[in-house]
Amino acid sequence: MTKPYGWAVSTVATSVRALLGAGHLLPSVAVTGFGTALGWRAVDLPAETLVVLASALFTGQLSIGWSNDAIDAPRDTAAGRSDKPIARGLVSRRVVAIAAGVAVLACVTTSLLLGAAAAAVHLVAVGSAWAYNARLKSTVLSPLPYAVSFALLPAVATASAEPPDWPPLVVCLAGAALGIAAHFANTVSDTAADAATGVRGLPQVMGARASMLVMAAGVTAAGLLLLVRILTADDATGAIVTRAVAAALLGAGILLAVAAGLVTATTVTGRADTERGAAPFRVTLAAVALVVAGFVTAA
Fold first, then answer.
1. DSSP string of 184-231?
2. Better pLDDT: 196 or 299
3. d(CA 210, CA 212)
4. Residues in Cβ contact with 7 at an 8 Å cutoff, skipping those fewer than 6 apart
5. Are the C-beta atoms of residues 28 and 55 closer than 8 Å to each other?
6. Fewest CB within a 10 Å sphere: which of 62, 98, 145, 211?
7. pLDDT at res. 249
8. Better-scored residue on pLDDT, 11 or 119
9. Phi/psi of residue 32, each to 5°?
10. Which pLDDT score, from 0 to 100, does residue 243 have?
11. Distance from CA of residue 204 to its chain's centroid?
């Protein structure tokens, strides 16, 4: 008996959702939005270049997410991770690996359309993330790829301009600090899963409490670096309102991150004490959002 058409459509939709889930869709969209916003705000790229930039960033991020799940599939399956589409049997490892390869080809193509300089910067950033997936995530060097990739993200936008340019060093350092904070934030939320799969990067070695402190410190450092840049910039009078808004966002983010760090230091008692760390963790995520908003506004 032929199965109904609606069943086939439902099956395809489920497979597509599973594939997108394996590509870490929300982080991919977030990074793409951040990088594209920097291209718009900091460099004033034309609309057609912004579209290409967004395409390059998005395909690069999808390739990173898909490669991560394809590489980790045996461990995720053995650990019975219910948050991983491959481990749940919703999509095959082979399909995800092929998707990662296709995304890499699309990333290389669209990056080259941005010019040689932007392509070189972006592909180094993507390659750094792939190195994390392949090996470095299980070593004490695990924060390094995050620092490198996030530090280079603003440079992808500025290198896409005509002529290509390089962002101020302080902007790259702020990006690196946010990247390290993001790495430790991801680890805090995946503590149990990482223990089950045997991942032992630097955050896992340090424990949840120390990871949350590093996360808060990274956000604070990024906010301070950008705030100092804004306050010392010699901009035109017309930019005063924009600078004031950016400074307010960054200041609020810094205060929240410092508060979260202090609460973590005084209430979270052990390496695996994630229950007491839930509130300061959420506060730090709010601080990240404020600092990123200030980052883009100040660009």
1. HHHHHHTHHHHHHHT---HHHHH-HHHHHHHHHHHHHHHHHHHHHHHH
2. 299
3. 5
4. none
5. no
6. 98
7. 92
8. 119
9. -60, -45
10. 85
11. 19
Of the chain, the percentage scoring pLDDT greater than 70 comes to 88
Q: How many CB atoms lie within 10 A of CB 107?
A: 24
**pLDDT for 245-264, tens place per residue?**
999 999 999 999 998 888 87
Q: Which residue has the tokens 């410190």?
A: 217
Kindly report whether the global pTM for this prediction surpasses the value 0.90.
no
Tokens of 203: 């955050």
For the chain, how far is it from start to end, CA to CA, in angstroms?
61
CA distances from 121 to 35, 216, 238 (A): 13, 28, 32
- Per-position DSSP letters for the chain, written without gaps between them: -PPPHHHHHHHHHHHHHHHHHHTTHHHHHHHHHHHHHHHHHTS---HHHHHHHHHHHHHHHHHHHHHHHHHHHHHHHHHT-TT-TTTTTSS-HHHHHHHHHHHHHHHHHHHHHT-HHHHHHHHHHHHHHHHHHHTGGGSTTTHHHHHHHHHHHHHHHHHTSSS-----HHHHHHHHHHHHHHHHHHHHHTHHHHHHHT---HHHHH-HHHHHHHHHHHHHHHHHHHHHHHHH----GGGHHHHHHHHHHHHHHHHHHHHHHHHHHHH--STT-TTTTHHHHHHHHHHHHHHHHHHHHH-
Residue carrying the six token digits 């869709």: 25
Is the pLDDT at 194 greater than 70? The verdict is no
pLDDT at site 281: 72
